[in-house]
């Protein structure tokens, strides 16, 4: 089990999380030491970095986040969280407990893709996200938590008693929808109780709460 500081390359999104934000929330929840190398979306630094990733083969997909974990480069944010959990001995130690994390995260990826597509699209796209898309997706996610969860609040817990990658994804996607105005916390509380419980409890983890507070200031 390694204990080197994790290095994450990602986009400078301010208070928005995005895919890299989910990894960040996961690392914060588990008290993992990490450092970030962030690229601006509007100053040309990300465009330049992306071209470099293609040319050097650092990441042929040209996507972020890109992490270095104990000397290994890993991409794809859900797979990266799962990898971190395994090499840092944070998994459930139970096959079903890990299945529910994976299964929920698979569905989450569809929601994340739609959030990106609509949040950074036209005004009509943003309106559709708020009036239709988020409601459809959150209903499904809430139902899956109801079906699969093995704990009172979370899908399952790691050996250290903390939430894992699927739960981090649940928190991150609710956080970003609220942050970008696609839904309010009050609407989540009223209509999606399982998602609301994960969001509320995850946001109260001291390190997560501190990060949110700093970005909101």
TrEMBL record:
Gene Ontology molecular-function annotations: glutathione transferase activity
Residue stretches in coiled coil: none
InterPro entries hit by this protein: Glutathione-S-Trfase_C-like (IPR010987), Glutathione-S-Trfase_C_sf (IPR036282), Glutathione_S-Trfase_N (IPR004045), GST_C (IPR004046), GST_superfamily (IPR050213), Thioredoxin-like_sf (IPR036249)
Pfam families assigned to the protein according to its UniProt record, in alphabetical order: GST_C_3, GST_N
Domain GST N-terminal: 7-92
The protein, known as: Glutathione transferase
GO biological process: glutathione metabolic process
Native species: Rhodosorus marinus
Residues annotated as domain GST C-terminal: 94-217
């Amino acid at each position: 089990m390694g204990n080197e500081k994790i290095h994450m390359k990602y986009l400078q999104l301010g208070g928005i999380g995005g895919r890299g934000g989910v990894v960040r929330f996961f690392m914060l929840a588990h008290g993992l030491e990490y450092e970030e190398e962030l690229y601006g979306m509007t100053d040309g630094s990300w465009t330049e970095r992306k071209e470099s990733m293609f040319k050097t083969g650092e990441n042929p997909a040209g996507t972020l986040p890109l992490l270095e974990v104990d000397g290994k480069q890993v991409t794809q944010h859900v797979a990266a969280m799962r990898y971190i959990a395994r090499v840092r001995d944070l998994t459930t130690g139970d096959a079903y407990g890990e299945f529910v994390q994976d299964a929920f995260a698979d569905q989450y990826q569809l929601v994340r893709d739609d959030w990106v597509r609509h949040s950074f699209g036209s005004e009509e796209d943003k309106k559709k996200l708020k009036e239709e898309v988020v409601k459809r997706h959150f209903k499904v996610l809430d139902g899956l938590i109801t079906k699969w969860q093995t704990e009172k609040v979370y899908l399952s817990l790691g050996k250290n008693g903390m939430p894992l990658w699927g739960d981090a994804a649940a928190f991150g996607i609710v956080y970003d929808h609220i942050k970008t105005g696609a839904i309010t916390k009050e609407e989540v509380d009223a209509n999606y109780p399982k998602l609301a419980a994960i969001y509320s409890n995850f946001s109260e983890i001291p390190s997560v709460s501190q990060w949110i507070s700093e970005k909101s200031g």
